Amino acid sequence: MANGNFTQVTEFIFTGVSERPDLQIPLFFVFLVIYGLTVTGNLSIITLTSVDSRLQTPMYFFLRHLAIINLGNSTVIAPKMLVSFLVKKHTTSYYECATQLGAFLVFIVAEVLMLAVMAYDRYVAICNPLLYMAVVSRWVCLLLVSLTYLYSFSTAVVASSSVFSVTYCSCNIINHFYCDIAPLLALSCSDTSFPETFVFISAATNLVVSIIIVLVSYFNIVLSILKIRSSEGRKKAFSTCASHMMAVSVFYGTMIFMYVQPQTNHSMDTDKVASVFYTLVIPMLNPMIYSLRNKDVKAALKRFLTNSCCSFKLM
């Protein structure tokens, strides 16, 4: 209890994506389709990169983990949000909210780092092709992925613990569709300087370091591609990183739009739109980007479907 006149919050109420009753059912079906495509697309990437022998390379190893992260990030948010469209009171318990925030932070930080790892992988593959398998060995791949998950988990534990170490009393209406840091801290009736400072420093560091790695990697990649004499060689080199460049542009574009806009234009409605993109839309788009622009993935999908049909006929 922060004060005798206040009651400690035991549950939170979401305002949701929209408070208009007539939009609840249409929005339910829109986000159900988005989540369905997300699950189907990312599970397909995970399955193909796991079972197809021609996709057992570092690039597809990292792509598999990006798909796992995208699937996890979307699953933390979407099911609870879909249920909220069908019920009148959009509530979540104090501990459910803490768990959702922690899980969300694990996956969002992991995605920021994984995109940087994938950019480094493309840099080595194009700029140092002869040393590629030595530099990005299986042990290095496992180490990079393990460090990504370990760091994101540690950051999420500290950040979510600091957010829920402050006192929440009386007001428990979250102006969002899931438990996020900014709308939660806005409800606190105690000093929020520590969680705000930690979250700002952590988010800024992660985003800036990741963007620098991506920019430096692709600057060197572009220089290497320009040095290739044959147009066919340049086209082939560019095609190996085009999908990742597109995925990075969409993800960081959303992040930059959210965090660098003028404070006078900043609003929770804007945050909601941006949050829909990086929690639901981007996890849906990534499998499409990597599938539609990647001949190896399309070929692997064709082989998988052919083998599955043959196995079914033999039953």
How do the strands and helices of this protein lay out in sequence?
Layout: E1 11-14, H1 24-51, H2 58-86, E2 91-93, H3 94-127, H4 132-135, H5 138-163, E3 173-174, H6 181-185, H7 193-227, H8 231-259, H9 268-292, H10 295-314
Parallel strand pairs: 1-3
Antiparallel strand pairs: 1-2
Helix pairs in contact: 1-2, 1-9, 1-10, 2-3, 2-9, 3-5, 3-7, 3-8, 5-7, 7-8, 8-9
Structural class: mainly alpha
Order of strands, widest sheet: 2-1-3
The major sheet is characterized as: 3 strands, mixed
Mean pLDDT: 84
CATH fold topology: Rhopdopsin 7-helix transmembrane proteins
Question: How much of the sequence is in beta strands?
Answer: under 5%
- Intertermini distance: 65 Å
**Large-scale geometry:** globular
CATH H-level name... which superfamily?
Rhodopsin 7-helix transmembrane proteins
Q: Please tally the β strands and state the result.
A: 3
CATH architecture: Up-down Bundle
Poorly predicted runs of 5 or more residues: none
Helicity level: over 70%
The quaternary organization reads as: single chain
Order of helices and strands: EHHEHHHEHHHHH
How many distinct helices?
10
What is the CATH class name?
Answer: Mainly Alpha
Number of domains: 1
Structure description:
The chain is an all-alpha fold. The protein has a single domain, classed as Up-down Bundle (Rhopdopsin 7-helix transmembrane proteins), CATH 1.20.1070.10. Helix content is 75%, strand content 3%. It is built from ten helices and three strands, in the order E-H-H-E-H-H-H-E-H-H-H-H-H. It has a three-stranded mixed β-sheet.
